[in-house]
Amino acid sequence: MSHSNISLPHNKSQVKGEAYTLLLSIIEAHFPIFAFFTVVALGALHAYFYSLIVAAVLLVSWFLIRGKLSELKRTEAYKNLALTSLFITSLFSLIFLALQTTSPSHVAIILFLQVLFSYLFLGRKPGETLGKGHLVGVVLMTLGAVVILFPNKLTLNLGDGLALLAAIIAPFANLYQKRARSFVSSETILMIRTLIALPFIYLLALYFEPAPSWEMIQAQWLWIVLTGGLVFFISKMLWVEALHLLPITKVNALYAFSPLLTLLLAYWYLDDAPTWTQILGGLPIVIGSYFITQKQLPINR
């Protein structure tokens, strides 16, 4: 009886984490599309900067409404917050730059390879191990992404390479976000990392890109608001909470259907139809998602 009482909160947290991940996956599937429009019109770094402004306004407001000001005194979180900000800012800079020379579909699928890197880098750390069934799921989903990305030969253009670098960085960003979450709330993590990113991205945009006119910025207001509000605010809040409730490797694996949804959205918004290779490569991703969401059986010792 006592065993079931102990397991219920754990199961409830797991279900909540999985629900958060599935919801954010739907939102994140739209991100490459939203960002693509602003990158084409404003430049990669300016697109990122103006999306961050929207996110910063929302996050600071939510932070104050939620009464989290006292969390800024928790100095034990500073190191993880700083490293989170470093990796996240680098990651999204690479994604926005990648969208200048490759398609939103490719960016979404390449970013999915963070599942592989997360397992390689974090899979043997305490709390981040996968059972055999879960490992099969990770392998299947990764193979599906590889089939979609490299149908003929193993070559990457610049945009694909930048997206791949972002996928390599992602596990470290997730790791430090997960650690920071043990000290402070999601609101604090997201606000701090956004406020730290703003001046750096502004200076980079100022130096490397021509400044867009106010009319150009106004013309993209919808995509900027959707990226800053829906992706950088709501989706990232769900992401940090999911990382707090589930192992990083499982969050990444549950995120698997997001690239498939991006393929459909790219066809809907951009008339960029998926190829047969992309469709066939999607099958292992779907099958792998089934394996990774199954309850892990205890190991006999």
From TrEMBL:
Residues 16-149, 158-293 form the EamA domain. It comes from the Bacteria. Keywords: Membrane, Transmembrane, Transmembrane helix. InterPro entries: AA-Vitamin_Transporters (IPR050638), EamA_dom (IPR000620), EmrE-like (IPR037185). The chain crosses the membrane at residues 20-41, 47-65, 77-99, 105-122, 134-152, 158-176, 188-208, 220-239, 251-270, 276-293. GO terms for cellular component: membrane. It is a multi-pass membrane protein. The keyword Membrane applies. Pfam families: EamA. The keyword Endoplasmic reticulum does not apply. It is found in: Membrane. PANTHER family: EAMA DOMAIN-CONTAINING PROTEIN (PTHR32322:SF2), INNER MEMBRANE TRANSPORTER (PTHR32322). Belongs to the EamA transporter family. This is EamA/RhaT family transporter. The lineage of its organism: Bacteria, Pseudomonadati, Pseudomonadota, Gammaproteobacteria, Thiotrichales.
